[in-house]
Design a protein that fits this description.
heterodimer, A: 692 residues, alpha+beta, four-stranded antiparallel beta sheet, 27 strands, elongated, B: 590 residues, alpha/beta, three-stranded antiparallel beta sheet, 25 helices, 9 strands, 7% strand, globular, Ribosome biogenesis protein BOP1-like (chain A)
Chain lengths: 692, 590
């Protein structure tokens, strides 16, 4: 029956189909064989699942087919393609079975019948029962419960104990562990390697052409050989002619081997011709990299190698501060390794070359000492105060102000302890102690020697004191002067009445404050600093940053001196009257030449702290400044009578000795009227005299 | 209203009109950053510093002229065309049209940089002046491994190797090498070509590491492309100047055995013969003068005369320095052991007039050659020793080159730790610190020149005859006697010193002998004793004159002082370390 069926199938299918079939036939036996192999595995495992089921199904279909064929045997033409194919398949299978004498399928069938199907839950996706306690239902509809899962620790322990644990597999469908046998493992390993599971199966067996047409009665195609197989193609020859013409015309070009032009030539043949100037910006050549020093040698002197402590200290540094290159020493050339940063260094250099802005800069290559101004030797400028000669002790508080008597025999000092003391200069004896009761702000002697009067400002008052010095004649005159009958209001005091310089000074200041001319400054809690011109009726008042110069006769502003300082703290005028020095809170000292301009002739930055006072010597070309940094500077300040020559300023000496108290240092400095001596009053309640 | 408001229609003024920022330049040129970078590298355009940075400090500013200089250059179009072409290839590949892609690849337009070289360096001397960086980079790439990932092609590495060898061959051939220094970073060479000092660094011949992070290889490769072209043209010009054809054709066998330098030298030898013929024609003109000269010379030596002329012709081209370099290793034959860096030696030794051979194929003479005077060895022990030659470490060659004398070889013998290798680029006096070995070398040098320096710390006037002084009435009799005594003492000291020098020359072991050290110590003590104590007065006056300086000058002064102090601190540190080392050595001896 099968033979007959085959022939009918061949007749029905088209030629194309035949070809297909042929290939199929070729492949079929191998596939079939494999299938059977796997089936046998399954059998051995006693674990036949879906596979065996399929087998059963197939058997069923096969039976069905044979049934149908028997029915259709009458009219074969109606068989659908599908059916035919199917039938062919089965036929072939059977044939192979028969030829090889393999009874695999039958065997499996029989064995399957013997062994009860293990899987009772059917071909059901397991995730349906993922969260359930049962795994499916048995034939009677009862739930099949899942085996209790071991916890992980226990299973791990069990695995560790059991030497065969590695060959155990969990079978999900049957919910049990299966132990693979040695043969099975071998099979699996072969499968993993991509080989056939059985060793006796030859994967690359020679091809056996199952289709035999040698002894067939009819050829596959009976058509005669066409003519076109024997004569040259017309269209091809036409195309060739077309190409030939195109080539002749030059429409088609071939890649000729390029003529090797000399790549390099004499670029700079004649240098003179290249002299024409390019109209772009001047080229600034990049600076050459620094040449290596001794320390970069592979074998430097030992002293170039940093010690271990230094290396450790490098680790503590910030990464930027760390030295870029740490010298190393190799005892022979062969032990020098490749430099690990070679590419990186080159890259950084390249980055610099194209990303660093280039600027031509003049490099000063001079000795720094030449930058210093040439100054006359200090020896030539003697005498000037050099060393501390005497200390006057007695005050209990900071000495705020000192003043020397015109003759130079006496001087007075006022302190925050509320006393004014009068001292003899040369012996250091305290002649008199005058209790005022309030902290003293300022003391001043009368500049006229014949009237030994002392003015003291304390608190809100200005006191004019009789010092009790001088002979009887003088004492009498002093008493006359100081005899006050009725208190006079300061605002009616006339300037012309008071000839005395000292009094004029004090009173004028008072008058101005009361007049409210500088009311603004008074409201800032700061009395304006002021000096009188020593010879002419000119008056200098400082605002916070500027100095205003008034003519007292014409009663108007002559000049405004711009100091450029933050805050003026003191002011002094040269005895000739044309030069002015101004000290500031930031420690700067300005020298103004009134003939030159309204800007300072010279600014000296000498003190790190506030300048408390500045002073000129009356006869010697000296001036001094004292500051809260406990020092006093002495300068040579020569003013020439020749107007073409600018004043000469030479710093001479730094006088030290005072100690700081409450952040204040030296409060006041005054020159001796005749000698080149300097008095300094310190916040440490000591007055010092510096002599030459 | 913003601070820098410019009404519409009003032109920009000042710096804003002259400079543009980088991003503005990109917009103007319509290029991306990569292309801009490449253009800048090719054209040698660099940012400039405007006086006022109108867009802020963090911006990079280019001069407007520089940017327009780029814009008008045909290279910009070429690069654009190239990128368009690249797109064509990509497209063909994407369409699986392999044939077209191959054709396109073969027909890629080539970018030529020769015009840019000419533009950037209108004179040859300019090119030489800027040759340091190109040489360093080309030498580096010659030693790098090719890498597909980083786009370092084998072809380019080979080209770099070729260029570097050509350059070295020229320098070696014309004896223009001046200084060599082996540092940890590589070997520094300094040559003098047409009065320009050219320094370059070659890496040690090891496998180089290609760092991945921090390095953008695109930048390096762009630079390299320009530098390769530049160096090739420079080489052409240099070869042209000595009448040798460029590019040289090398013996493939020697090339294969990694002795390109030697192959090049051979090429020179083969090629320089026709050049002599050229010279001969020039010499004809001076024949008349020669004939006149011949009368004055002994007539039986015409050959000698010819030699004389030739030498003169050679010499008038060469300056004093070159002559000195040429004759340093004259009549010396070197043999390199396997472990010695061959490339460097093959470059240096012929550059100073020596003959050199090595172990391996193609070597001009073998190790067994009896005429070898020096064998350079860098191994702990030497097995078979020929008595006719000296065995030295490679550092000896470099030190000889730097000092320009043949140093005694004892300190450099096999297995010894060689004396410190000093940098020839350092001016010791300026640095303020002279290493011991520099002193030794100085003495050896002066000894080699047969003029003996006076003892350090001794003036010439001390050597004057005291009697003369007496006669002139400068000093009293007692003083004269004292001076005479002193002179005698000095004489003995000097004699001892000279003896030591001789010993050193004869080849005693390098190490400043103990007596020397103590003497130096005493000298130092003397110095410190003489040094006047910095008195308070001095300090205060210094401060005083600083008061009168203007602020600008004071700033400059202080900066200079700071620099000086840093230098001094460095020198002090070195001195301190040295003292410690000496103390430790003394302790060890005891």
């Amino acid at each position: 029956m099968r033979e007959r069926k085959k022939s009918s199938a061949v007749e029905v299918s088209s030629v194309k189909k035949k070809k297909e079939k042929k290939t199929k036939d070729n492949n079929e036996p191998r596939e079939q064989k494999e299938k059977e192999e796997s089936q046998s595995i399954m059998k051995q495992q006693k674990n036949t699942t879906s596979r065996s089921k399929k087998e059963k199904q197939r058997k069923a279909t096969e039976d069905y087919q044979s049934l149908r064929e028997s029915e259709l045997s009458g009219d074969e033409v109606h068989g659908t393609d599908h059916d035919v194919d199917n039938a062919d398949d089965h036929h072939e299978e059977d044939q192979t079975d028969g030829s090889e004498g393999h009874r695999g399928v039958e065997e499996s069938d029989s064995s399957e019948d013997e062994v009860a199907p293990r899987n009772t839950i059917g071909d059901v996706p397991l995730e349906w029962y993922k969260d359930e306690k049962h795994i499916g239902y048995d034939i009677s509809g009862k739930k099949i419960t899942k085996k209790e899962r071991q916890d992980k620790l226990a299973s791990f322990l069990a695995n560790v104990d059991d030497s065969k644990s590695w060959r155990k597999i969990y079978d999900e469908y049957n919910d049990e562990e299966v132990e693979l046998t040695k043969e099975e493992i071998r099979l699996v390993q072969r499968l993993l390697k991509g080989k056939a599971p059985h060793t006796d199966f030859d994967q690359y067996a020679d091809y056996v052409d199952w289709f035999k047409y040698d002894d067939a009665l009819h050829p596959l195609s009976n058509a005669p050989e066409p003519k076109r197989r024997f004569i040259p193609s017309k269209w091809e020859s036409k195309k060739v002619v077309q190409y030939v013409r195109a080539i002749r015309k030059g429409l088609i070009k071939f890649d000729e081997p390029k003529e090797e032009e000399p790549k390099f030539y004499l670029l700079w043949g004649d240098d003179s011709s290249a002299a024409e100037k390019a109209n772009h910006l001047a080229y600034i050549p990049a600076p050459k990299p620094k040449l290596p020093g001794h320390e970069e040698s592979y074998n430097p002197s030992l002293e170039y190698i940093p010690t271990q402590e230094e290396l450790n200290s490098y680790q503590l540094m910030y990464e930027e501060d760390r030295p870029k290159f740490i010298p190393r020493r190799f005892t022979s050339l062969r032990s020098v390794p490749a430099y690990e940063n070679a590419v990186k260094d080159s890259f950084e250099r390249c980055m610099d070359l194209y990303l660093c802005p280039r600027v031509r800069k003049k490099r000063v290559n001079i000795d720094p000492e030449t930058l210093k101004p040439k100054l006359p030797s200090r020896k030539d400028l003697k005498p000037y105060p050099v060393a501390c000669y005497l200390e006057y002790k007695g005050h209990k508080g900071a000495v705020v102000s000192i003043s020397t008597e015109a003759s130079g025999q006496w001087f007075a000092s006022g302190s925050t302890d509320g006393t004014v003391r009068i001292w003899e200069v040369e012996s250091g004896r305290c002649l008199r102690v005058l209790e005022i009761g309030e902290a003293i702000q300022y003391v001043a002697w009368n500049p006229l020697p014949e009237l030994p009067v002392l003015a003291v400002s304390a608190g809100q008052d200005v006191l004019i004191l009789n010092t009790g010095l001088g002979n009887e004649e003088e004492q009498r005159r002093v008493k006359d002067l100081l005899h006050v009958e009725t208190p006079t209001a300061p605002d009616v005091l006339d300037l012309g009445l008071v000839e005395d310089h000292l009094l004029k000074n004090l009173l004028l200041a008072l008058m101005f404050t009361l007049d409210g001319v500088f009311g603004r400054m008074a409201s800032q809690g700061r009395l304006p600093l002021h000096v009188f011109h020593p010879t002419r009726s000119i008056f200098f008042v400082s605002t916070k940053k500027n100095i205003r110069v008034y003519d007292l006769l014409k009663q108007r502003l002559i000049k405004k001196l711009e100091t450029g300082l933050k805050e003026v703290s003191s002011i002094a005028i040269h005895p000739a009257g044309d030069n002015l020095i101004v000290g500031s809170r930031e420690g700067k000292l300005c020298w103004f030449d009134m003939d030159l301009s309204s800007k300072p002739y010279r600014v000296l930055k000498c003190h790190p702290k506030d300048i408390t006072n500045v002073a000129f010597h009356r006869s010697y070309p000296l001036f001094a400044s004292c500051s809260d940094d406990c020092t006093a500077y002495v300068f040579h300040g020569m003013v020439y009578s020749d107007l073409n020559q600018n004043p000469l300023i030479v710093p001479l000496e730094i006088l030290r000795g005072h100690t700081s108290s409450n952040g204040r240092g030296v409060m006041d400095c005054k020159f001796h009227p005749r000698q080149p001596w300097l008095f300094t009053a310190g916040a440490d309640s000591v007055i010092r005299l510096y002599c030459h | 209203m913003p601070k820098h408001y410019r009404p519409a229609g009003k032109k920009k003024e000042g710096n804003a009109a002259k400079y543009i920022t980088r991003s503005q330049a990109l917009k103007q040129l319509q290029v991306n950053t990569k292309l801009f970078r490449k253009l800048c590298i090719y054209k040698g355009v660099f940012p400039r510093e405007p006086k006022k940075k109108f867009k802020g400090n963090h911006q990079t500013y280019y001069h407007l002229k520089d940017v327009s200089f780029i814009r008008h250059d045909p290279i910009l179009e070429d690069l654009r065309a190239k990128s368009a072409y690249r797109k064509k290839i990509i497209k063909a590949k994407a369409k699986r049209n392999k044939e077209l892609a191959d054709i396109l690849k073969n027909r890629q337009p080539e970018i030529k940089l020769d015009r840019l070289v000419q533009e950037r360096y209108p004179h040859f001397i300019d090119a030489l002046r800027d040759l340091d960086d190109p040489l360093t980079l080309v030498h580096l790439f010659a030693a790098l491994p090719a890498s597909d990932r980083l786009k370092i092609e084998v072809k380019r590495v080979h080209n770099c190797r070729k260029l570097s060898h050509e350059w070295q061959a020229y320098i070696s051939r014309t004896h223009k090498l001046r200084k060599v220094f082996i540092s940890v970073k590589g070997v520094y060479y300094q040559a003098e070509v047409e009065g320009q000092k050219i320094t370059w660094l070659t890496p040690h011949g090891m496998q180089q590491v290609l760092p991945d992070d921090d390095v953008v290889y695109d930048v390096l490769l762009s630079f390299l492309e320009f530098y390769e072209t530049l160096l090739a043209f420079v080489n052409f010009k240099l070869y042209h100047s000595i009448n040798v054809k460029y590019p040289p054709i090398l013996d493939p066998q020697l090339e294969a055995s990694a002795a390109e330098l030697y192959a090049l030298a051979r090429y020179f030898d083969a090629n320089s013969r026709p050049s002599e013929k050229v010279e001969a024609t020039q010499e004809e003109e001076s024949d008349l003068r020669l004939a006149q000269l011949q009368h004055q010379l002994p007539s039986n030596e015409p050959g000698a005369l010819m030699q004389l002329v030739k030498d003169a012709a050679d010499e008038n081209e060469e300056d004093e320095d070159t002559k000195e370099c040429k004759n340093l290793f004259k009549n010396m034959r070197f043999f390199l052991s396997r472990e010695v860096p061959r490339e460097s030696m093959l470059f240096v030794i012929p550059a100073f007039g020596g003959t050199v051979s090595w172990e391996g194929e193609g070597a001009p003479f073998s190790e067994t050659d009896q005429s070898i005077t020096h064998q350079i060895v860098d191994r702990p022990t030497q097995g078979h020793v020929y008595l006719s030659r000296e065995y030295v470490q490679p550092q000896w060659v470099y030190d000889c080159v730097n000092t320009r004398i043949i140093l005694p070889t004892d300190a450099y013998m096999v297995g010894r730790v060689p004396p410190p290798h000093l940098s020839p680029f350092v001016d010791n006096e300026e640095e303020g610190y002279v290493p011991d070995y520099a002193e030794t070398i100085k003495r050896l040098k002066s000894a080699a020149k047969n003029e003996i320096l006076p003892m350090p710390g001794m003036g010439k006037e001390d050597l004057d005859d005291p009697q003369n002084l007496l006669a002139e009435g400068y000093i009293s009799r007692a003083e004269a006697i004292e001076a005479a005594e002193r002179k005698q003492k000095m004489m003995t000291l000097e004699k001892q010193y000279h003896d030591e020098l001789k010993m050193e020359l004869d080849g005693f072991k390098y190490s400043s002998s103990v007596s020397d050290a103590t003497k130096q110590k005493s000298g130092e003590d003397m110095e410190t004793g003489e040094e006047p104590l910095p008195d308070v007065q001095q300090i205060s006056t210094e401060d005083m004159s600083k008061l009168l300086m203007s602020r600008k000058k004071r700033g400059l002064y202080e900066a200079m002082k700071k620099g000086q102090e840093r230098k001094k601190a460095h020198v002090d540190l070195l001195k301190q370390r040295k003292k410690k080392i000496e103390a430790a050595e003394k302790f060890k001896k005891n």
